[in-house]
Amino acid sequence: MTAEEPSTIRSESTAEPPPGIPPDSYLNPRHLSLVEPSLPEVYDAIREADREMNRAAAKRAAAIYAAQRVLADVGRARAEAAERAGGPRMPWSPEEATKEEFTCEVSALLRLPRRTAETLIEASRTLAEELPVTREALASGAISYRHAQVIMEQAWGIRVDDDPEAAARARAVFEEVLVPDAEVLTVAKLADRARRVRERTHTETITARHQKSVEDRHVVFQALNDGMASLYLTGDAEKVQAAYHRTLDVALTLQGPDEVRTLTQIAADVLTDVLIGGVTPDGLGAGVAAQVNVTVPVLTLLGKSEEPGYLAGYGPIDPDTARRLAAGAPSFTRLLTHPETGVVLSMGRDTYKPPAALKKWLEVRDETCTFPGCRRSAK
Q1: Residue 104's Cα: distance from chain center in Å?
Q2: CB 154 within 8 A of CB 146
Q3: For 9-111, where are the alpha helices, taking DSSP H only?
Q4: Are 373 and 186 in contact (CB under 8 A)?
């Protein structure tokens, strides 16, 4: 079937249904068998086209890595030739010069911003040198480049300054666990899974890493088109998430039959009103507290373990923060989880209220909608 040719249906499909039987509003299996090409064939074509795109991304990464190696050799040869000729010493090292040259070439060749080109070059090197399992999965078409990017972005953070071999072993375990998940999960759900796996495989404690990372907290203003702009806040996960939920809680109180704004529009208005004036113009927001759900291993709570806590909707947090949040919690819910997978096996409750318990169970177990691709909060 070409782009200009519509799919054809055999003449039998025009037959009238037997008397007394209403026509189907959806295609049943008999109808599907009359369509050419068949739906399974069309779906197979979509899947194969996607796998071809994945294989092409792997080929591009391999080509970029090969070109980088060749240009590095050329740069060293240039520097050696200049040194033998007794010419003036270059202000840049051969490595810096070739890196700058290659970045500019890739940026111009693929029409990419400089920063994007740098990330692509580093990703190609990472696939070639550090993540062989991910590289093979991408080359076979089993995972997409976006899935590979999620794995690489987390693997880049598995670094140990004084023990590169230990970091390499941790990355190997990390991708061995994660690549099979990448073949069945969406990118968003894989990212959540990757954060958890990274915490279990990283050789450095989350407490030490958080102490370094918290110094990078910042706010970024970005201008957009049509008189718009964005504001990005990076900080402690529990504080940023609490601010986000407080914004939504206030926005929900403003919804009503006469409200023409969407929830996201109201939330944006609430946040700017609170940041500028302290509360919304009508006084809402004063005294509103956000709810933060934190799962803390009991041994961590007792100070007998340094296993990370888990912030619902975000992922692992350092044990000190988890203990601090637990200390101020108004109530607790007992959870029994599997020691290896972390799957919730049971949830304690003092009274039996099936609707409320079921709701709480789903919020704790799933966190988000379970439909593929949907990240809407279970709450």
Answers
A1: 28
A2: no
A3: 29-32, 39-85, 94-110
A4: yes
Task: Extract long-range pairs of 268-274: CB within 8 Å, 24+ residues apart.
Answer: 271/247, 274/247, 274/250
End-to-end CA distance of the chain: 46
| Cis check: omega of the bond before 37, within 30 degrees of 0 | yes
Structure-block tokens of residue 20: 């007394």
Q: For residue 187, count CB atoms less than 10 angstroms from its CB and return exposed for 0-12, middle for 13-18, buried for 19 or more.
A: middle
Distance CA 319, CA 209 (A): 12
Nearest CA among 81, 58, 80, 78 for reference residue 70: 78
Distances (CA, A) of 372 to 23, 144, 369: 32, 16, 8
Rg (CA), the chain: 27
Q: Using CA atoms, how far apart are residues 186 and 88, in angstroms rounded to an integer?
A: 54
Q: How is residue 82 written in tokens?
A: 């200049």
CA separation, residue 172 to residues 151, 168, 177, 212 (Å): 11, 6, 9, 24
CA 50, 51, 57, 60 dihedral sign is negative
- The residue whose two tokens read 């208005």 is 269
pTM over 0.85: no
| Structure tokens, 222 | 């970005």
- DSSP conformation letters of 343-370: -EEEE--SS--HHHHHHHHHHHHHSB--
pLDDT tens across 165-222, in order? 888 888 888 899 999 999 999 998 899 888 888 888 777 777 777 777 888 889 888 8
Res. 26: pLDDT tops 60:
no
Q: To which residue do tokens 């994660």 refer?
A: 178
